[in-house]
Amino acid sequence: MSSEARDRNRDAWNAERYDSWVKAIGTPEAEAKHLVANPRHVPRRLLPHLGDVAGKTICSVQGSHGRVAVALTLLGAEVTVIDFSEENRRYALELAQAARVSIDYRVGDSLEADKLGLTFDAVVMELGILHYHRDIARFFEVMRAITRPGGTMLINEFHPVQRKLFGTLEPRDYFNTALTEGDVPNPTGDGRTLGKCTLRFWTLGEIVTAVIGAGFRVERLDEHPDWTDAKIPGTFTLVARVPSGETS
Ligand SMILES: C[S@@+](CC[C@H](N)C(=O)[O-])C[C@H]1O[C@@H](n2cnc3c(N)ncnc32)[C@H](O)[C@@H]1O
Questions:
Q1: DSSP annotation of 166
Q2: Which protein residue has the closest C-alpha to ligand 1 atom 25?
């Protein structure tokens, strides 16, 4: 995104966000109890591809309220979140404190994650990440830079076929490359608009090509049925690795 579009998206992701999470998920103290009781539930779509996470360094890219990060930390990982929302950070840090674990939450643009000077055993992201980026090739170059040689990048994301052809996007054009304006997600269900985002929806081919172009080796691409219409793809999981022996 241009810096203007990024700032607009960031403002939208800060508007009433902490209160929205409390309303939708519960207080950090209440949600921490769920995570502690069953830390495998929230990251259940990621865990089958990560092996034993204990002792691993993991980056939760655009990790939002931090539920994935806190759950992975409870399972023994050392987790860093990169997300540009201060309000998300507030919820996530209170969640971690209530769960009696510690996470490293960096507020900033994920497109600049390579400037942190960190590399990770695994870089994970899920459900609502890629459409915030206008230069997807650059995005995956940055993800490649923060994944250590032999490390894994894991994306569980909404399927472009569902988003572009069966969702609320107009026009229904799989190959539409235009930027789109959309409401920032409001998890409370009260129907109010919390802010507008500038979005770019990618085809599956564009996503996979950008991952390969950044130097990853794609190991799996699984497509999953839509949660309400099992005849169409709703999400996908892409597992990619940085070949061992390559420098970051
Ligand atoms: C739909 S959420 C993804 C949340 C994910 N499903 C989870 O459970 O952790 C999108 C997240 O991306 C963040 N975001 C969007 N664009 C970003 C950017 N350029 N840099 C950093 N964070 C960004 C938002 O603040 C938000 O937390």
A1: I
A2: 85
Looking at the domain that runs over 3-241, which CATH code has it been given?
A: 3.40.50.150
* Statement: the pTM of the whole predicted model exceeds 0.70: yes
Give residue limits of the domains in the chain.
3-241
- The answer to whether the CB of 149 falls within 8 A of the CB of 242 is yes
Ligand 1: lining residues by beta carbon, under 6 Å: 6, 9, 13, 62-64, 68, 83-85, 88, 109-111, 126-129, 132, 185
Q: pLDDT tens track of the chain, all 248 residues?
A: 678 999 999 999 999 999 999 999 999 999 999 999 999 999 999 999 999 999 999 999 999 999 999 999 999 999 999 999 999 999 999 999 999 999 999 999 999 999 999 999 999 999 999 999 999 999 999 999 999 999 999 999 999 999 999 999 999 999 999 999 999 999 999 999 999 999 999 999 999 999 999 999 999 999 999 999 999 999 999 999 999 976 65
DSSP for 117-157?
Answer: ---EEEEEEESS-GGG-S-HHHHHHHHHHTEEEEEEEEEEE
